[in-house]
Amino acid sequence: MKxxxxxxxxxxxxxxxxxxxxxxxxxxxGYTDITLTGYDAWSCGQDDWYSTGFVATxxxxxxxxxxxxxxxxxxxxxxxx
Length: 81
What we know:
The protein is α+β, with helices and mostly antiparallel strands. It has one domain. 28% of the residues lie in helices and 36% in strands. It contains 2 helices and 4 strands; from the N terminus they run ααββββ.
């Protein structure tokens, strides 16, 4: 039972997204028509706690796909695919 609990906690911490924070950051940077696509594995650095995928329209009117990476003790990074 303890092993199952530990496994569940590890999975919960590994697959974290921050939809409200990601939407706020993208909006502040001028992105519109934002669609969040959920957890995006392997797209962020090891210091990032949150990985939230998105599709949005940038300030030039171009549709872009990417991920918002956020850490507990650092800011956010927008990475594009």
